[in-house]
Amino acid sequence: MKDYEAKWDYFDQEGHLIGYVCRFKGNSLKNNGKPSKKIIPYFNEDNNIFKSGIPDHLNNSRPLFGLPSLNNPLKKIYIVEGEKCASALNDLGFQAVTCLGGSNAADLTAWKALKNYNQAVILPDNDDAGRLFAKRVFNQLKTLNPDMSISLSVLPALPVGGDICDYLTANISHLSGWNELSSLKNHPCKNEIYTTVSADLEHFQTNIPPKWHIIESKSGLKALSYKALDAASIPENKILLSPWLNQRSINMVFADRGIGKTFFCLSCAIALAEGSDFLHYKVYQPLKVLYLDGEMQAVLIKQRLEAIIKNKNIVNNRFFIVTPDCQHDRDMPNMSHAEGLGEIDELIKQINPDVIFVDNLSTFIRSGKENEGESWLPVQEWAIRQRSNGRAVVVVHHTNKEGSQRGSSRKEDVMDTIICLKRPDDYTGEEEGARFEIHFTKARHIFGENIRPIDASFKDDKWSYQHADGVYGQAIEMLADKIPPKDIREELNIAASTLSRWKKKAQSEGRL
């Protein structure tokens, strides 16, 4: 071995020489105008015989260069790219280290020697490889010691690919003729240089970018530290249909057959598209709605929409419906398969809706058993993706024999709001038109009066409502006050059988 330009020795933490790296001249110029170079490592494999290359036992646990400079855990450590830069800083009196193998070696390095140090400053080279190296070093150090204070020192006006040595030659007058390889250990102005460089590194020190606090696996799965979450630009969720339907939410409306869940959800959808209020729910601006209907006849859908819609001009550009009778020679998408979800996603990409209704779940999940949670999982993952893209999803579903939503309760876990529609106790039949009580069985963001049940009805092309326990509540209060049943029936104009049924209900609810 001869004719090398520079040689840098590697020591272990006990101070034993374990290898060295030599730099040789290349035969060409790099893109940045600097001469090319060849770096060859030599490490002790056996009986103090140093062979070129990195031994297998060190390859995934490579030693740091510059360990002899580490003498004070309370002082900053500077981490650079390359032995040349680390050696220059060591000569000037800085604690500085680098990886064996340059910018690609951060994840292969044994950083444990820095575990007890409180502060680290990373000095990236001015190129993409340098910035990636700095990010990887940061991830390694935070894993090693979560309490370590880590920052960057981003030096200005560096050439492409430039490093701390370029900065020294360009900004420190005493080093204007320095060749970047000669030792600075005995430089006559060493103390003055150290003071100036320390001030510059401090002046250009900056915080780690917030996105670096996001840990990402090779598959793309991301984990955010609190700092990353706190710094992330996460928009507030707008209220779309106040108080229960929010932007970026997943919701369910369920009811028994014939109660009116499609009529209710179509009315919500049209209110959103028109920007008009519905019952006591407020809408603040017109929104784009995609309604996926998998069950109703198109003629019935059309009749119901004609009864609901007030402003056809607005709805024409903001309400879109997918319904079986209009598909002709093809089936409706099966949302339990990736292919079916992909077909729906194609439409979503073209329409870009704010809210998506899926009415109803059983007509869009046609594989597996409905009472098994696995059949719901593809739809859940799809709904979460819609939520992350800023959309609200409303799933329409049936009740089971016990009156809860049908199938696995797993569906409820991801829901922000769940609404159950029920027949009122005093419902007399079809002559009343569409009439049901609206009950919240889950509400993550609304409380108190906002989740009080209401009794809603649609008659003569008009929706109206009252609190579901209006007359019922009055009757219970009068029973609690020991008012004779006959007087209660006359005052409230209700049948004896109704009052008897309400009394039993109130007793089961603990209200009497």
Structure description:
This protein has 512 residues and is α/β, with parallel strands linked by helices. The chain has two domains: 62-231, Dna Topoisomerase Vi A Subunit, Chain: A, domain 2 (3-Layer(aba) Sandwich), CATH 3.40.1360; 239-430, 3-Layer(aba) Sandwich (Rossmann fold), CATH 3.40.50.300. 31% of the residues lie in helices and 23% in strands. The chain contains 16 helices and 22 strands.
Largest sheet: 9 strands, mixed
* Mean pLDDT metric: 90
| Major β-sheet strand ordering | 16-15-17-18-14-19-20-21-22
Number of strands: 22
- What coarse outline follows from CA principal-axis ratios? elongated
Number of helices: 16
Structural class: alpha/beta
CA-CA gap between termini: 98 Å
The third-level CATH topology of the largest domain is: Rossmann fold
Quaternary organization = single chain
Tell me the β content.
Answer: 15-25%
What is the level 1 CATH name of the largest domain?
A: Alpha Beta
* Range of helix content: 25-40%
**Rg, Cα atoms, Å:** 36 Å
CATH homologous superfamily placement of the largest domain: P-loop containing nucleotide triphosphate hydrolases
Helices and strands, with pairings:
Elements: E1 6-11, E2 17-29, E3 35-46, E4 49-52, H1 56-59, E5 77-79, H2 83-92, E6 95-97, E7 119-122, H3 128-144, E8 149-153, H4 164-171, H5 190-203, E9 205-207, E10 214-216, E11 222-224, H6 226-231, E12 239-241, E13 245-246, E14 250-255, H7 261-274, E15 289-293, H8 298-308, H9 312-318, E16 319-322, H10 338-351, E17 355-359, H11 361-364, H12 377-388, E18 392-398, H13 410-413, E19 417-422, E20 434-443, E21 454-459, E22 462-467, H14 470-480, H15 485-492, H16 496-508
Parallel strand pairs: 5-6, 5-7, 7-8, 14-18, 14-19, 15-16, 15-17, 17-18
Antiparallel strand pairs: 1-2, 2-3, 3-4, 8-9, 10-11, 12-13, 19-20, 20-21, 21-22
